[in-house]
Specification:
Blueprint: E1 3-5, E2 9-15, E3 18-23, H1 31-40, H2 50-59, H3 66-82, H4 93-102, E4 126-128, E5 130-131, H5 148-155, E6 160-167, E7 174-176, E8 186-187, H6 188-198, E9 207-213, H7 217-231, E10 256-261, H8 296-305, H9 310-313, H10 333-336, E11 339-341, E12 365-369, H11 370-387, E13 392-396, H12 410-413, E14 419-422, H13 429-437, E15 446-448, H14 451-454, E16 473-483, H15 485-488, E17 502-509, E18 516-519, E19 530-539, E20 546-553, E21 561-569, E22 576-583, E23 589-601
Parallel strand pairs: 5-14, 6-9, 9-10, 10-11, 12-13, 13-14
Antiparallel strand pairs: 1-2, 2-3, 4-15, 6-7, 7-8, 16-19, 16-23, 17-18, 17-20, 20-21, 22-23
Helix pairs in contact: 2-3, 5-6, 6-7, 8-11
GO biological process, one term: phosphatidylinositol-mediated signaling
Subcellular location: Cell membrane
Membrane topology: Peripheral membrane protein
């Protein structure tokens, strides 16, 4: 089997005596792009002037001011000069099309838009990019512990790093590992030094380190010395033991914050005995791109139908965010002094933790597994929303996710949970949603929660995540065409006997009423597919909506192949015709693969 190709034709060897030949067409502007070029070619001579392009930027691309449309028009001209297709008289149709589709100056999110949200509100007013078991290189049972995934997470903009700290084998030093599993340890000091070197590479906003502490007081004192010497002036020391209101990200810029959490989560994971192989199926073994994101409405409805009396009130001991098994009274004082955000132990049932503490006007942090959280939201969704207006809530993957898979993060975000903790070393659709959310606000790792989650409505009512609201706006998405696979993939990657048969899945991840996926028709045997199809997505809570885009290659006999993906915050989408770069299932950006799409709000 072999393949030969030119820009004119391509042939695939089926057997020693037979080849299949396919024509390869050059990428051509879609019909609507041609019509827009004709409309804005004021001279009618097949050339769009700078002034024509400026009008296009304002009227089609949504440039809000004359200066902005002028700047974007100039950026287009600069991009075309780089592509060596600029003509001194203006833009030809081919140049106009190449600017829209092939230059890097026309992305769906504004590259000049850095941190632009108000960063002076309390920490509880933000979604925070949060990792779970940040030191693991793979599954939760038998993978290595290392500082490498911590470094990668920090470079990706993650702002909450989790370390489980245990005595080493000699009980005279401290390791980081997933306790009572077959994971191999890494020294704590190595992780701390890597954190110091990389903490603010991607974002200058505060980094939180959550410590799951399994130490004796003497080792706690040793950890305190390590942390103090390693982080120096960057370490944030609380002035009081607890806050009446959390400080703001702006006031904590460049600071490292220490937080505690319970040493109980590890017990949710089944203990692996020494005789076990520890082999765990990775989440992407099931399919290259992982399972479909769980449907929030189906999850909520499933809990409604359950008859078990414990669904509302029962919680495992591990689901409560309590202090260490070593009492706070016995903890090393120099260690206690470092802890800025305490995880307090609620008395009684989990739902009681959501209630205001009598005679205490202090904010606090609560943590629970996704399983406990799903139980709690059945009857206490609005109470969670009210709790998260002032307090921090952390939701972490259930212990059965030994393959380092993840859950649907929207179930936490739509209830106001700030720290939706994810296994960043995993792959798949849930993690793509996490990436999409934190592409917002300049990728700084902090995204301001929408007002509906922060402010009370009429009659002092808070947002009800399960209520069906009226449509605020509709997002119109047109998928024109795609290109780049022929450059970035082997020519037999998708099909050994013919060019690929691509289709696009496009949809919304958001509150239940808004969540949906749709797909285009399949274009057969074409490396440069032209779909030219439009979809409409009514949005009741556009502030929480994420636009999901996936490309697949249809396979009649096996599972469809994967052609790329991206996820974009709807709140920051630029309207107009945009070139949308795609990423692999591991979230690595493809060099050439992209879609030409149009976005409009009505």
């Amino acid at each position: 089997m072999e393949t030969r190709a030119t820009m004119a034709k391509q042939s695939y060897r089926v057997c020693w005596c037979f080849r299949r030949r396919f024509k390869m067409r050059a990428a051509e502007a879609p019909r609507e792009v041609k019509e827009l070029f004709e409309r804005y070619d004021s001279g009618g001579k097949g050339v769009m002037s700078v002034e024509d392009l400026q009008r296009f930027m304002s009227e089609v691309q949504g440039a809000e001011t004359e200066r902005r449309s002028r700047d974007e028009a100039q950026a287009a001209m600069d991009a075309l000069k780089h592509l060596n297709i600029f003509h001194r008289r203006g833009l030809s149709l081919d140049a106009f099309f190449r600017f829209l589709f092939f230059s890097d100056a026309n992305p769906p999110l504004d590259p000049s838009l850095s941190v632009h949200q108000d960063m002076t509100a309390p920490l509880s007013h933000y979604f925070i990019y949060t990792g779970h078991n940040s030191y693991l290189t793979g599954n939760q049972i038998s993978s290595d512990c290392s500082d490498a995934p911590i470094i990668k997470a920090l470079h990706d903009g993650v702002r909450v790093i989790e370390l489980d700290i245990w005595p080493n084998s000699k009980k005279d030093n401290v390791d980081v590992l997933h306790g009572r599993t077959l994971t191999t340890p890494v020294e704590l000091i190595k992780c701390l030094r890597s954190i110091k070197e990389n903490a603010f590479v991607a974002s200058s906003y505060p980094l939180v380190i959550t410590l799951e502490d399994h130490l004796t007081p003497d080792l706690q004192a040793k950890v305190a010395e390590m942390i103090t010497k390693t982080f120096g002036d960057a370490l944030f020391y609380p002035e009081t033991e607890s806050f009446e209101e959390f400080p703001s990200p702006e006031s904590l810029k460049g600071r490292i914050i220490i937080s505690t959490k319970p040493p109980k989560e590890y017990s949710e994971t089944k203990v692996v005995n020494e005789g076990s192989s520890g082999k765990v199926m990775d989440s992407h073994d099931e399919a290259a791109w992982g399972k479909e994101v769980s449907d929030i409405k189906a999850t909520l409805d499933a809990f409604d139908k359950r008859n078990d009396l414990d669904a509302e009130d029962h919680q495992d001991e591990d689901d409560l965010d309590e202090t260490d098994h070593i009492s706070q009274q016995n903890a090393a004082p120099e260690y206690k002094r470092l802890i800025a955000i305490h995880a307090l132990k609620p008395k009684g049932k989990l739902k009681e933790a959501l209630k205001p503490m009598p005679d205490v006007d202090k904010v606090r942090r609560l943590s629970m597994s996704e399983q406990a959280f799903e139980k709690l939201i059945k009857n206490h969704g609005t109470e969670i929303v009210r709790f998260t207006q002032r307090n921090l809530l952390r939701v972490y993957p259930k212990g059965m996710r030994v393959d380092s898979s993840n859950y649907n993060p929207l179930i936490g975000w739509m209830h106001g949970a700030q720290m939706v903790a994810f296994n960043m070393q995993g792959y798949g659709r849930s993690l793509w949603l996490m990436h999409g959310m934190f592409r917002a606000n300049g990728g700084c790792g902090y995204v301001k929660k929408p007002d509906i989650l922060l402010k009370d409505g009429p009659n002092n009512k808070v947002f009800d995540p399960r209520a069906t609201l009226s449509v605020k706006k509709t997002l119109k998405v047109r998928v024109y065409m795609g290109d780049g696979w022929y450059t970035d993939f082997k020519h037999t990657h998708f099909d050994i006997y013919s060019p690929p048969d691509f289709y696009v899945r496009v949809g919304i991840a958001g509150v239940p009423a808004d969540s949906v996926m749709k797909k285009t028709k399949i274009i057969e045997d074409d490396w440069k597919p032209l779909w030219d199809q439009e979809f409409q997505f009514p949005l009741t809570v556009p502030e929480l909506a994420l636009l999901r885009i996936e490309v697949h290659e249809y396979d009649m006999t096996e599972k469809d192949d994967f052609g790329g993906q991206t996820c974009l915050p709807v709140s920051e989408l630029r309207t107009g015709i945009r070139a949308v770069p795609l990423y692999s299932y591991k979230a690595e950006k493809h060099k050439s693969v992209r879609l030409l799409m149009r976005f409009d709000f009505v």
